[in-house]
Amino acid sequence: MNYRVAVRALCEFTAKTGDLDLRFTPSPTAQQGIAGHRTVASRRSPEYQAELSLEGQFGALSVRGRADGYDPAANVLEEVKTFRGEFTAIPANHRQLHWAQARVYGWLLCQSLQLPQVDLALVYFDIISEKETRLQETWSASDLQQFFELQCGLFLAWAEQEMAHRAARNAAARALAFPHKQFRTGQRTLAEAVYKTVSTGRCLMAQAPTGIGKTIGTLFPLLKAMPGQQLDKLLFLTAKTPGRKLALDAMQVLFPEGQDAPLRVLELVARDKACEYPQNACNGDSCPLARGFYDRLPAARRAAIGQTPLDQKSLRNVALEHEVCPYYLSQEMARWADLVIADYNYYFDVSALLYGLAQANQWRVGTLVDEAHNLVERARGMYSASLDQQTLNSVRHTAPAPLDKPFKRLDREWSALHKAQAGPYQAYPQLPAKWLNALSSCITAIGDYLNDHPHGLAGNLQAFYFEALQFNRVAELFDDNFLFDVSLVEGGKRRLSQLNLRNIVPAGFIGPRLASAHSNVLFSATLSPQTYYANLLGLPEDALWMDVESPFGAEQLDVQVVSRISTRFVHRQASLEPIVELIARQFGQRPGNYLAFFSSFDYMQQVAELLAERHPSISRWLQARRMDEAARQDFLDQFTLTSQGVGFAVLGGAFGEGIDLPGARLIGAFVATLGLAQLNPVNEQIKQRMAARFGAGYDYTYLYPGVQKVVQAAGRVIRTQSDQGTLFLIDDRFAEPKVQQLLPRWWRLQ
């Protein structure tokens, strides 16, 4: 059996030492890095070989990679690194790693071409000045061979362990039995479709109702297919924390032996949830868990692989025991886990960790995208950016003196940009070149300042810097899939504005990510119509679609269409009293716990206040703006098996999906809105774009996302096959055939 490892991965394992150091030094974007490498290559002779593929063997270890460039005439192998700022700011342990990579490539080249010696050069290319700083050494083939064998020897024991683990993992996957006596209705159909999808390397969209056990119904067949398809990793990608918990719980059901299970399961959480010292910077001078991080990492890594599932709590315990940062230990363990459970952004974001590792290591990956209806909006957010001139003004007052000139220039170009704008909002077909140049200069100036003052970034300046970097990064991606608009804001005596780069069709970014995986399964209770999601997410033309049979019967859910009440904004005031009386009447006929969903906090508040006034005996609890996890849990804790009352919530918010209130905890819901997005200039611009692109502007912008929120909210009522409940759809538009076609097939509308 052979173990493949990339040159970079090998050297990062064996040659990284010292502190974790993430001082705010401006690094090039991926596009800038690629451009920098091309510039260097263009300066070389015609015989220069760029992106040279090399491979070598050491025992069971196969080492491969692409060297940046080789000049056969001069016999020089180059390792090119792009950077911004001062060369002297590059940490010594980074240069040590770069030299290690160059030496491994050097031996692979000597072996390939039978060279007795070779010159190795580290070429550091400043993307701003386009100057090269060159460090060069001459090495004999025998010395390079010795270095290569030393690195491989350090890694080989780990590689052998990994091969043994993979064999045990695959054997366990083949032997894995379904954990329950029988499949639920629809669950077997889903599981079979997932298995076939993985076996054929396809993409599947599965609309599967709540209650069939989607998590186990997708994980089980993917695990069974893992050995036969030679998958390196499984990625369970989810939009919210509850999704991660469901996946972890499912793995405990599939492998109840827990820590002895032959499958390594890792949960990745956001940096702010994993950081032990949020007040400290990520470097050895500031944080004790960053000091000597790479020196203590091998022992922490060995301990971590013995823990499964490696959830947030377990990983934290291992990290603190070995005095390393939990967040960056989790990033390291992503390389060695079999199943990674993580948020969407870990695979789909611009600089996504899992996608980057998969590409660098050529992993064969199978993905499960949980609650995939959320991916459209989440993806749009990942590839969007905004900047506010008011923020710039506040930053200018406290910014250090060297930044005054670039800030003034940016502010001047900003004001010139919207000077001629007639209305409060306007969309523009092109990005403002002069303003972007000023922004780029401002970013560079902040970067230069930080090279001289590593601790000089804090507070508002830090926030602005990151926002500026994101805006600049997204601006490089701008095309007809984006909307650029300017909104004027009140700024006292001056006209100020907010600039927005909105991604409206993320297909160009999400599609390639999906295509790079061996197979993908996107599943949700609401994935209709399929063309909407397929078009916006860039799914392949041969993507499969299925609508899984519901385990619930129409008799379980009494669906009432209340078409006599309009919840349109112009009719809102007139709707308050009839809605209150509807809630009170239903509560009187069948007391228990209900959820009432509204289109806005204001609308919700008005109905709740009128209910309290007219029917004070009915208990109420209200969703608040910007609730943290503890507050959200307090809200849900009101729904007990013995309580009776009405919870008021906003459609599409924290309680519209992903919550589980089975049995008497929830017996009905009132949905007093069609869920349509607000009518505003931005959405109208998106509507125009959608009409031009897909011929369905209103449907893509308003109707489909709105009804999806309604169905998700309604799905809170019936959670098990023994549940009975009532659903009131309150709006005259729910009576329209076009809307009813988008509702679940098993509902019987009355």
Distance between the termini: 63 Å
Q: Biggest sheet, strands in spatial order?
A: 9-10-8-11-16-7-17
Number of DSSP strand runs: 23
Unreliable runs: none
Count of all domains: 4
Biggest pleated-sheet summary: 7 strands, parallel
Please state the structural category: alpha/beta
Could you characterize what this model shows?
By secondary structure, this protein is an alpha/beta fold. The chain folds into 4 domains: 3-156, Lambda Exonuclease, Chain A (Alpha-Beta Complex); 177-381 and 516-547, Rossmann fold (3-Layer(aba) Sandwich), CATH 3.40.50; 384-503, Fumarase C, Chain B, domain 1; 554-740, P-loop containing nucleotide triphosphate hydrolases (Rossmann fold, 3-Layer(aba) Sandwich), CATH 3.40.50.300. The strands form 4 sheets. A 7-stranded parallel sheet has the order 9-10-8-11-16-7-17, with helices on both faces. The termini are far apart. The mean pLDDT is 93.
Summarize the entry for a quick read.
The protein is α/β, with parallel strands linked by helices and 750 residues long. Helix content is 44%, strand content 19%.
Short descriptors:
23 strands, Rossmann fold, alpha/beta, single chain, 4 domains, Lambda Exonuclease, Chain A, Fumarase C, Chain B, domain 1, 19% strand, six-stranded mixed β-sheet, seven-stranded parallel β-sheet, 750 residues
